[in-house]
Specification:
The complex is a heterodimer. Chain A contains ten helices and no strands. By secondary structure, chain A is an all-alpha fold. Chain A has a single domain (52-251), classed as Orthogonal Bundle (MetI-like fold), CATH 1.10.3720. Chain B has a single domain, classed as MetI-like (MetI-like fold). Classes of the chains: A mainly alpha, B mainly alpha.
Chain lengths: 252, 300
């Protein structure tokens, strides 16, 4: 196939895909135009934010951060055995390696909110469902990022410790862990940042945190309060990002 | 050409492993840890531990609650072990709607984000006083989760896939605008300078010295965003904004675990497949960056 034909084919394919999607969702420009005033109206009704309401939101916000923290650490602990099983330099048995990677890849296909909805159905409405969902979600990402880093560490210390005849547990704790721990901590911090963002919306499906209040204010048409919550969330997410980012740089 | 690959890697890294570069540095330094860094790590570990304990104590977990949860878990596993495959046609319907939402939102945002990216790019030959402003705005959009946009748009256009398309589009404009700008910033300034020196206007510089170099990066970015949008489009239905999330929510609220398991299995398969295809295409694009250099210069 010549180079000039291929882009044409891709273009035709894209147009077909687009047409198929427009048919399937009955999206139209006129509908968008008709909907636009409703959006601006909504934004107008949100202003001004009800900042006095924020006093009552400190508790839910703290709960949100707690959820993120618990989910991150639990996910990190769950990830450790899978990381060791998945990396080529810590596990020489190929089928086991594949199994471990299949588990982490499968878990990573599940979106955060979907996990939360499932756990709400399992353990009921509340932050416990959120923590469970965040733990599973974090497990997938932490294990992938850490095992990839583990595979790229300098092999020499690993060989050296093995060469002096250290048993497997000692080799793990004295050679592998020191090499990969700084990275692991960095990944945990990054995961915590992500989880704070995610935890703020999990309440929308009933999994605890400030999202629960956002949903409540929206259903009662208290748009000023909703905007206040959104602004608070924005500020907290930014602050935690900055703090965690600074900490991450200090770690190395 | 190396610059573009740098950009792709950077946004890849920001999304998938923000700590990757940090990690690479730490890997190099981990053999020779300064005492201060070691102390810092110990402090971080201790603080994390204390905070974890505190948060756990506030969660209100009790042994009865854990036991009840375990019972529930066993019941769910038994129910889910006999998947209701007759539900598959409905699952496919929902999945198709999710894909529609992702396709529309990604393509619409890919176009709409371009002017924003262009304004935000702080490339020496196209930057204006608006660039930092546009950049800040695009970053601000990205701090709000997609699902929040979905809820807001549902208030405006009613529940259904349309609200989902709007929500994903807005979020994706924030995402792609920012990374479009970043990709353009990494285009080498040489060709632009040459055109400028020959008396070309700003539009000509963009058209001939910027876009040809940035295009592969753009394509790769759009594909990556599509993968993410597919994921989000599967959960939009949980709040009522169309897609397979609706079927999931129905099955969950009616405790039809044998249907929930069908949805989950289909989602794992579908998302894995899309990731693999898109990942392959992205790989091809990034390879083409170095491979097509000579042939493309003879074409024009």
């Amino acid at each position: 196939m010549s180079r000039s034909v291929r882009p044409g084919l891709i273009g035709v394919g894209l147009i077909f895909l687009y047409y198929w999607s427009v048919q399937g969702t009955d999206v139209s420009l006129s509908k968008l135009m008709a909907g636009l005033p409703a959006v601006t109206d909504l934004l107008r009704r949100m202003w001004p934010p009800d900042l006095a309401f924020l006093k009552r939101m400190i508790g839910p916000m703290v709960e949100t951060v707690h959820m993120a923290l618990l989910g991150t650490v639990t996910g990190g602990v769950l990830a450790v055995p899978v990381i060791v099983l998945a990396a080529e330099n810590t596990n020489g048995i190929r089928p086991l390696r594949w199994a471990a990677r299949a588990v982490m890849n499968g878990v990573r296909t599940m979106p955060d909110v979907l996990l939360a909805a499932i756990f709400v159905a399992l353990v009921g409405i509340g932050p416990v469902a959120g923590v469970a969902a965040l733990s599973v979600f974090s497990f997938g990402i932490i294990s992938k990022l850490t095992f990839e880093a583990l595979e790229t560490v300098d092999p020499r210390p690993l060989e050296a410790v093995r060469a002096v005849g250290a048993p497997w547990p000692a080799w793990l704790s004295h050679a592998v862990v020191p090499l990969v721990l700084p990275h692991f901590l960095g990944v945990l911090l990054y995961m915590f940042e992500v989880n704070v963002r995610v935890a703020t919306v999990l309440g929308l499906v009933g999994a605890g945190g400030i999202g629960l209040w956002l949903m409540r204010t929206l259903t009662f048409f208290q748009y000023g309060r909703a905007l206040a919550i959104i602004l608070l969330t924005f500020a907290v997410v930014l602050a935690i990002d900055k703090m965690s980012g600074a900490l991450r740089r200090r770690l190395t | 050409m190396k610059a573009e690959r740098g950009a792709i890697e950077r946004w890849n890294a920001e999304q998938e492993s923000a700590s990757h570069q940090v990690a690479a540095a730490s890997m190099a330094s981990s053999q020779l840890v300064a005492p201060r860094t070691a102390a810092m790590r110990a402090i971080v570990a201790v603080v994390l531990l204390i905070a974890y304990g505190w948060a756990l104590s506030r969660l209100g977990l009790s042994s009865e609650r854990l036991a009840a949860g375990w019972d529930m878990f066993k019941r769910v596993v038994t129910a889910a072990s006999v998947p209701d495959w007759a539900y598959l046609p409905r699952v496919w319907e929902g999945l198709r709607e999710s894909l529609h939402i992702a396709v529309l939102a990604t393509t619409a945002a890919a176009v709409m984000a371009f002017p924003f990216g262009l304004i935000a790019a702080e490339h020496p030959h196209i930057r204006t006083f608006l660039s930092p402003l546009a950049k800040g705005g695009l970053s601000a959009i990205r701090t709000f989760p997609e699902i929040l946009f979905a809820i807001l748009f549902m208030r405006a256009v009613g529940p259904g896939p349309y609200a989902g398309v709007l929500a994903l589009s807005v979020y994706s404009v924030g995402f792609m605008g920012k990374f479009y700008a970043q990709i353009m910033e990494e285009v080498p300034a040489g060709p632009a300078e040459a055109l400028r020196a020959a008396g070309a206007g700003r539009l000509a510089v963009i058209r001939h010295a910027l876009l040809p170099y940035a295009l592969p990066g753009f394509l790769s970015l759009v594909l990556y965003r599509f993968e993410q949008n597919v994921r989000v489009a599967t959960v939009l239905g949980i709040v009522g904004a169309g897609g397979i999330g609706q079927q999931l929510m129905l099955s969950l609220t009616s405790r039809s675990w044998n249907r929930v398991i069908v949805i989950i299995l289909v989602l794992i398969a579908a998302i894995s497949l899309i990731d693999a295809l898109s990942g392959w295409a992205r790989h091809r694009i990034s390879q083409g960056l170095t491979g097509s250099e000579t042939s493309s210069s003879t074409e024009h």
